[in-house]
Every structure is written in structure tokens, then in C-alpha cells.
Design brief:
The complex is a heterodimer of chains A (about 240) and B (about 400). By secondary structure, chain A is of the alpha+beta class. Chain A has four helices and 13 strands. A 13-stranded antiparallel β-sheet of chain A has the order 6-5-4-3-2-1-13-12-11-10-9-8-7. In chain A, a hairpin with a 7-residue loop joins strand 12 and strand 13 (about 220-230). Chain B has about 400 residues and is of the alpha+beta class. The chains are: A alpha+beta (about 240), B alpha+beta (about 400).
């Protein structure tokens, strides 16, 4: 009887093991959904201030995680502002002053246009599998969706956030919620990914809510209006000449 | 001598007119000395405070460090030279490690410069020994300006976020263990000080610093491998230039005052020569040369400046002595200049300043007295005696 019970338990355990992918597998599948060689995005950023909310519209071209070019389309105050990221350098062109400035030092840590994202966050590399070792720590229903809870620890000391905790949709392998931690364990940022849509052969969020947990406020919404993956990015857009 | 006697007699004879000229010239003396003394006193205080609070007796900067280029800050650090280990332990030099960071006072976001300094240092007046941990927390100190801008009180905990040498975010709460009052905004505004050891651990830069301040010029006085020595005169050059610039700006006011005084002397001379034509004609007719007559009028004009010295001394000395003793209380907004300005500035009056001012006013008064007197050399004595306008 004891032997039968052991055999049944072993089968159940093996079944569970087969059903539960490893943390690294989940990261791989997230990257397949979220990462691309290049992309072209029309987006809206809704910044909730203490009194009013502002909406900024932008068009972004990016190649991998190293190069990106953004032009702000609205409101009229921001229209024509351009931002270029090349490796770890960031430039901004402001049409009102007709000047290009390189963002550095303390300015990189400042909030980007009053949002919950800093310029530094814009330069962050989102490719997860190459930077983190992940383990599945549990399973939970989040917003009505069955999710894996995974904790990722950076595999090298030069990663921006040493720890990430994600709630990953079990069927679509898209994170629905993410918490970013400092090395000391302090929760720095929280991200919610909503309105998951099928775009080509991948699942991608139509809306992301960023919240800087150290700062007061309601957070910043990022809405993806249109997105194309693996597009050919015009070469001239990824040089400083494109800023003028 | 005769010119001098005549000048004195004529000046006293002119009564109120002389008094008014002398009064305005004496005001010029006092204002010039006071303003220059203010700038001189400010300069001396700024230099003294800069040495005391920020520069020490010179500094060693890491070769990559450029205070005017924010891009250099993250790479500007290196191992503290071993030859300075004893001096660091004794506290006669102060290693400092810099890193940009972000604080979140009351949920607001604020960029700051985080500075780590050895707590036993005696090279500068920062009270680094007050950064005493009562538990596991990191003790910190800041100046009154920074505390005011963050609305921080002694004992408050403030969340600081930074990136270590590898670019990884980290965040921790620090406790305000000391708030110091300094006339030096460069060690106060926009920065928080923590112990060097904690800073090195936070940035993963064990044994490293961005700059080393020397409290004694015999310890550090030349470049050391990757470290460039900054002499005290080089460090003070910005302050000196700024004060010189302010001095030029301030001189416009007293130059206007001096110009008005000289204009009054000039007018007095013109009027005097016009009204005393008969006298001029008579003394030339009696045998005095034109040059001697010009000398009488020039000395007469210049005597205004001499009399002004005495009148100025009468009320100026008590005023300047009182200013020297009590100083000028500077308004709170003076801090916004971003340069070292003490709460009270005590003017400094050097002998060179006083003698220089006397010489300047006397020479310029003599010149403006001489210019109208030249007309006498063209006068016809006959016409002058008859009072004919020439």
C-alpha cells in the first residue's frame, strides 16, 4: 500500500514538474514576447501630476536596447522635441531653444517630463534572460489571470536592478505586474501591464502603468497606440544629425 | 607759499560754497573707502572661509575629475595613494568620494551630490566627527541651506537612491546626525555628507576617493601618480575674480559721486575766475606771472580736497570704525549668489586703500581745478582790470 502511495506521489510530483516551466524558461518566453531586434511605436504617455494630468504623444524608432530615437508629437509645448539614445549616452533636442543637450549626471536621475520614469530608466536594458537568473516562487491569480510568480536575481553586478519580481501570465508568458528592487531590497518601482494584445506572433501589452514607489503620485500610464516589430529603422534617425 | 596762503584766505572767504564742495568731496572719500573696504573685507572673509571649509591648503584631484563637467563624475575615483595613509589616519588630509544620487524628501524627488568624507578629518572645518551611527543606519550631515530646501530636521530619516560603480540601483535610509551652518554654499547647497567608509561600501569602491583635501601644505604639494595637485591660489582664483568683478560693478556708484563732486569744484573754479577777473588783472599788473596766478587758482581748487580729508575724517572715522566693529549684516537672499557670503561682512580698511583714495581724489580735484584756470594764461590784464568779459 505504501509503495503504491509513493508511486502515485512520484507521478503527481513529476506531473507538476512537467507543468511548471523553470524560471529561466519563463524569462526566455517573456523576452520572445517583449524583445525585438527593432521596433517602431506610436505611443501616449499620461503623466498624472498632483493637480492635473498631461498626455504626451510620441513616435519612437529603436534598434535592440542600445539605440532609439523619439520625436514628441503632442502637446504643442513638447512638439518637435527629440530624444536620441546611443549606447549609454542620451541627447535631447529642444525646438524652442534650437539646442541639443547631452543629458548627464544628476539630470539623468531627474524625472522625464514630470513622469515616473527618469531619463536613466529610458536607458535601461529590458532584455531579461541574459541578465537574470530566475526562479519560480509560486503561483497566483492576478486580475483574474493565472500567473507564475518569478523572482529574478541579476547574474552580474552591473545590472541596474538587482532583483525583479514578476507575475507572469501562465498561458501568454507576458508579465502582468512587476516589482523592481534595489540591492538593499528596497522596492523602487512597480509596473502593471494591461490590455494584452496579440501582435503578429507575440503577446504585447497595450498599456503599462509605471509607479516610482519612492515618490508620491499616481504614476504614469504608457499607452501603445501602434507598434511594429523587426522593422527596418532608417539609418539617419540613429545619429545626432537627426536631432535638428 | 603765497599761493597757499591766498588759497586758504579765498576758500574761507567763499564760505558756504566752499563748505558744500568740501562736504561732497568728503562724502566721496568716505563712500570710496567704505565700498572698497566692504569688497576687501568680503574678499578676505571669502578666502578665509573657503580655506577653512572647502579648500584646505590645496587639493589632490583624481586625474579624471573635472568639477565643471558632470560627465566625469562617475569615473573620477581612484585608490587613495598609500603614501598618504598615515595622514589619512591622523586626519590631516580629508579624502572625499563623490557620487550623484537622488533623495525623496516627503515623497518629492530631488537630485543631490552625495559626498563621503573621513569622519576623523581635521583638514577642513566640516563637523564630520558628528556623523555618529546610533544603530545600523548611515549617519549623515548637511548644511542649513540643504536642510531648509528639503525641510529636514535633525534626526530625520531620508531615503537616498544611487547607482554603485557597476551602475546598479540601490537605496537606503540615512539619518540626519548633524546640520551645520557654513558661509560656504559649495559645501552645503544640493549635497549630503556621509562617512567615507559607508560611501565606499555603497558605491563598491573600497579605499577610493575622488579628491583629497590637504590640511597642511607640507603633506601634499605636488602631483601624485593619477592625482593632480590643485594649489590654493588656483582654487581661490574663481573667488578672487568674482570679487574683482563685483568691485568694478560697485565702483560705478562711487565714480558717479566723485564725478558730481568734481563737477562742483569745476563749476566753482569757472565762477571764481569769472567773478575775480579784476583781481586777476591787478595781481598780474603788479608783477605776478600768469603761471603763478594759475598756481594760486589750482591750489585753491585742490585745497577743497585737502579740507575734505579733515571734514571726512571728522565723521568718517567714527563711521568706518563702527562698521569695522559691527560689520554689514547680509540679507538671507545673499546665499542665492552661490558664493561664500558670511552672515555679517566686516569691511577691511588698509592703509594703502586710505592713502590711495586720498591720492585719487586729490589728484583728480587738482586736475579739474587746473583746467578752468588755464584760461588765465590768455587773459589781457588791461581788459581784466576793467572787468571786460574775455
Amino acid at each position: 500500500m505504501k509503495i503504491i502511495a509513493t508511486i502515485i506521489s512520484a507521478f503527481i510530483f513529476q506531473g507538476l514538474l512537467l507543468a511548471q516551466p523553470s524560471g529561466d524558461d519563463i524569462l526566455d518566453r517573456i523576452d520572445k514576447n517583449m524583445s525585438a531586434d527593432s521596433r517602431h511605436v506610436f505611443s501616449k504617455m499620461i503623466i498624472h501630476g498632483p493637480r492635473v494630468s498631461r498626455t504626451i504623444e510620441a513616435e519612437t524608432w529603436s534598434v535592440g536596447d542600445d539605440k532609439s530615437y523619439t520625436e514628441y508629437l503632442a502637446p504643442s509645448r513638447e512638439k518637435g522635441t527629440k530624444m536620441l539614445k546611443l549606447e549609454d549616452q542620451l541627447w535631447i533636442y529642444s525646438p524652442s531653444t534650437d539646442r541639443t543637450i547631452q543629458i548627464s549626471g544628476h539630470m539623468l536621475r531627474q524625472s522625464m517630463m514630470g513622469s515616473d520614469l527618469s531619463y536613466e530608466d529610458m536607458m535601461d536594458d529590458p532584455n531579461l534572460r541574459s541578465k537574470y537568473d530566475a526562479t519560480v516562487t509560486g503561483s497566483e491569480t492576478y486580475n483574474g489571470t493565472d500567473c507564475w510568480i518569478i523572482e529574478s536575481i541579476a547574474n552580474s553586478p552591473d545590472v541596474t536592478y538587482q532583483k525583479r519580481k514578476m507575475w507572469v501570465d501562465k498561458s501568454r508568458y507576458v508579465p502582468l505586474k512587476e516589482e523592481l528592487y534595489a540591492k538593499s531590497g528596497t522596492l523602487l518601482k512597480k509596473t502593471e501591464l494591461l490590455d494584452i494584445k496579440r501582435i503578429g506572433n507575440r503577446w504585447y501589452p497595450g498599456k503599462i502603468i509605471f509607479k516610482d514607489m519612492l515618490k508620491k503620485g499616481k504614476g504614469t500610464e504608457f499607452i501603445v497606440d501602434e507598434i511594429e516589430f523587426n522593422v527596418i529603422v532608417p539609418e539617419h534617425l540613429l545619429s545626432k544629425a537627426a536631432l535638428r | 607759499m603765497i599761493a597757499f596762503k591766498l588759497a586758504i584766505r579765498n576758500l574761507f572767504g567763499a564760505g558756504l560754497r566752499t563748505f558744500l564742495n568740501v562736504l561732497i568731496l568728503s562724502i566721496s572719500y568716505v563712500v570710496i573707502i567704505l565700498l572698497n573696504g566692504f569688497y576687501q573685507g568680503w574678499g578676505e572673509q571669502a578666502r578665509t572661509d573657503s580655506v577653512k571649509w572647502a579648500y584646505g591648503q590645496g587639493q589632490l584631484w583624481h586625474a579624471s575629475y573635472d568639477p565643471y563637467d558632470a560627465f566625469t563624475l562617475t569615473d573620477a575615483h581612484g585608490a587613495i595613494p598609500e603614501s598618504l595613509n598615515d595622514a589619512v589616519n591622523e586626519g590631516s588630509v580629508a579624502p572625499i568620494l563623490l557620487a550623484p544620487a537622488t533623495v525623496y524628501p516627503e515623497g518629492r524627488i530631488k537630485s543631490i551630490l552625495l559626498k563621503g568624507i573621513s569622519i576623523n578629518q581635521k583638514a577642513i572645518a566640516l563637523p564630520s566627527d558628528l556623523m555618529i551611527a546610533t544603530g545600523d543606519e548611515i549617519p549623515a550631515m548637511m548644511g542649513t541651506r540643504m536642510a531648509k530646501s528639503m525641510n529636514a530636521q535633525l534626526g530625520d530619516f531620508i531615503l537616498v537612491r544611487w547607482r554603485d560603480a557597476n551602475g546598479t540601483f540601490d537605496a537606503v535610509e540615512i539619518r540626519i546626525a548633524a546640520i551645520f551652518n557654513t558661509p560656504m554654499p559649495p559645501v552645503d547647497a544640493g549635497q549630503i555628507w556621509i562617512p567615507l567608509k559607508s560611501m565606499q561600501e555603497m558605491l563598491r569602491l573600497d579605499g577610493e576617493a575622488t579628491m583629497i583635501i590637504s590640511g597642511d601644505e607640507s603633506i601634499i604639494n605636488a602631483d601624485l601618480s593619477d592625482w593632480k595637485f590643485q594649489t590654493l591660489p588656483a582654487l581661490l582664483s574663481d573667488i578672487n575674480e568674482l570679487i574683482e568683478m563685483k568691485k568694478v560693478g560697485g565702483s560705478i556708484m562711487y565714480l558717479i559721486l566723485l564725478a558730481l563732486a568734481l563737477l562742483a569744484v569745476f563749476d566753482t573754479q569757472i565762477l571764481s575766475i569769472f567773478r575775480r577777473q579784476k583781481e586777476i588783472g591787478t595781481i598780474i599788473a603788479m608783477g605776478m606771472t600768469r603761471k603763478q596766478v594759475i598756481a594760486i587758482f589750482t591750489v585753491e581748487g585742490a585745497m577743497h580736497a585737502i579740507l575734505a580729508i579733515f571734514l571726512g575724517a571728522l565723521y568718517g572715522i567714527p563711521l568706518l570704525v563702527s562698521m569695522r566693529k559691527n560689520g554689514f549684516a547680509m540679507p538671507e537672499y545673499a546665499d542665492d549668489f552661490g558664493v561664500p557670503i558670511a552672515d555679517t561682512i566686516f569691511p577691511a580698511f588698509s592703509l594703502a586703500l586710505i592713502l590711495g583714495t586720498i591720492l585719487l581724489v586729490t589728484i583728480t580735484t587738482t586736475i579739474v581745478s587746473y583746467i578752468p584756470a588755464r584760461k588765465i594764461s590768455k587773459m589781457n590784464p588791461n581788459d581784466a582790470i576793467r572787468g571786460k568779459i574775455q
